[in-house]
Amino acid sequence: MAVTELHRITTTLNKALDYIQDPKKTDNTLLVSGYACAPETAFHQFNQTKRNADKKNGTLAFHLIQSFSPGEVDYETAHKIGIELADKILKGRFQYVIATHIDRGHVHNHLLINSVSFKDYQKFHSTASTLRLIRRTSDMLCKEHNLS
């Protein structure tokens, strides 16, 4: 199964977006996608959603990392699984940028999720149950794709 971690971004959203979209890590950005935002302008789009909701303080985004075992999955499949994971857990309510990194011995996805929903302006809540849901969903998708 893929290993998942979830972290809060509270001060450096622009740096986090730059890091996950690094062309050297993402096959020259071929493995970067966005939902309800363009990866190149996600920083401004995330912030506009927060302004619209009048929720500019606190957590700016969440950084979800999904790491696969070495040699277990090809780049495109890992990216597809990451998108499926995001779509299942976020249910179309939150903007996100996903980037699949191929610069290490293992393929891994970085997913930056806006902390505020562009649909209903509610905040994303990161709790122990949220992390369990993410892990269960990731495990289910790995099984569906015949991964360990």
Could you characterize the architecture of this molecule?
- This protein has helices spanning 13-20, 42-53, 75-90, 128-144, and strands at 3-9, 32-35, 61-67, 96-101, 108-114.
- With 148 residues, it is α+β, with helices and mostly antiparallel strands.
- Helix 3 (75-90) packs across helix 4.
- It is globular.
- The termini are close together.
- The model has no long low-confidence stretch (mean pLDDT 95).
DSSP strand tally? 5
Q: Number of helix segments?
A: 4
Strand order of the largest sheet: 1-3-5-4-2
| Backbone CA Rg | 15 Å
Instruction: List unreliable stretches of 5+ residues.
Output: none
Helix content: 25-40%
Estimated structural class: alpha+beta
The major β-sheet equals:
5 strands, antiparallel
Tell me, briefly, the overall form.
Answer: globular
The fraction of residues assigned to DSSP E strands is 15-25%
Describe how the helices and strands are arranged.
Elements: E1 3-9, H1 13-20, E2 32-35, H2 42-53, E3 61-67, H3 75-90, E4 96-101, E5 108-114, H4 128-144
Helix pairs in contact: 3-4
